[in-house]
Design goal:
This protein is an alpha/beta fold. It has two domains: 2-112 and 278-289, ATPase, nucleotide binding domain (Nucleotidyltransferase, domain 5, 2-Layer Sandwich), CATH 3.30.420.40; 125-275, 2-Layer Sandwich (Nucleotidyltransferase, domain 5). The chain contains 13 helices and eleven strands. The strands form two sheets. The chain has a six-stranded mixed β-sheet with strand order 8-7-6-9-11-10, sandwiched between helices. Strands 3-2-1-4-5 form a five-stranded mixed β-sheet, with helices on both faces. A hairpin with a 2-residue loop joins strand 2 (13-23) and strand 3 (26-37). Helix 8 (199-207) crosses helix 12. It is globular and about 50 Å long. One of its GO terms (molecular function) is pyrophosphatase activity. Residues 29-282 form the Ppx/GppA phosphatase N-terminal domain. This is Exopolyphosphatase / guanosine-5'-triphosphate,3'-diphosphate pyrophosphatase. It comes from Algoriphagus locisalis.
Amino acid sequence: MKLAAVDIGSNAIRMQITSVSQYEGKINFKKVEYLRFPLRLGLDVFNNQKISDINRRKFIKLMKAFKILIDLYEVDDYMACATSAMRESINGKEIALEVKEEIGLKINIIDGNREAELINISLNKFFDEKTYIHIDVGGGSTELNLYKEREKVASKSFQIGSVRSLEDKVATPVWASMDKFIEKHLQNEPNVTSIGTGGNINKIFELTQPRKNKRYLDLSKIDEVLAHLGILTFEERVNKLNLNHDRADVIIPAGKIYQHVMKAAKSKKMIVPDLGLKDGIIQLLYEKNKAKKPL
């Protein structure tokens, strides 16, 4: 079985094609194709409320390329989800309809709660009886999910993201609202473990040069990385640290969001599982199709 996930974010657009097979009673998920294209839709939307004509044309070309790959790989099922930028854009629905009519690729414009639900599907194995705060920072929004004794007890999406922060488009009351949400649900919780998802926290994790097989980050390490990044110029981040151009400018504002949430939650440690929306979509598609197409 082959499944495809398309994640249309505010800073970049990703597609992953995964092959699912069964061997000795175990289900195996193997990534056979992964593409990330740096199309920053959020820059248009957070400044001008709509996707520009030039980025609209690029987006449609990219969706054509993705659809060709989906067909070439003979994918059994796919799901394309658009998040903050397209759901806030006044022409987002219009562009999604154009893609469906011209290319035959259906785009689901999802809200923050649905985005969080899909991401959480891939994270279930990390939860136990302890208290966790899942932090997912995108280009346009941050989703927070709180878990106690394996149950999700609260969830909320905030209009705070890396691109939005870079463009100084985060309203001050939103930060206060986030802090109140955390305080309300985590008061008197002495040991909260964070789970961080998103491209920027994965890159921060890589920059700490972690030990093999260790997927944990201490808050102090995040502080160190952000301090180091802060003294480097944009060009130094690109050339010395080998960061992509569209990562080098947003990694600090994104990192500060994770940092802010962890400090508000009094969390000292973060799990960085290298999972995200695309992984949740793949898992959802597998559950949907496993009865129809036995492995």
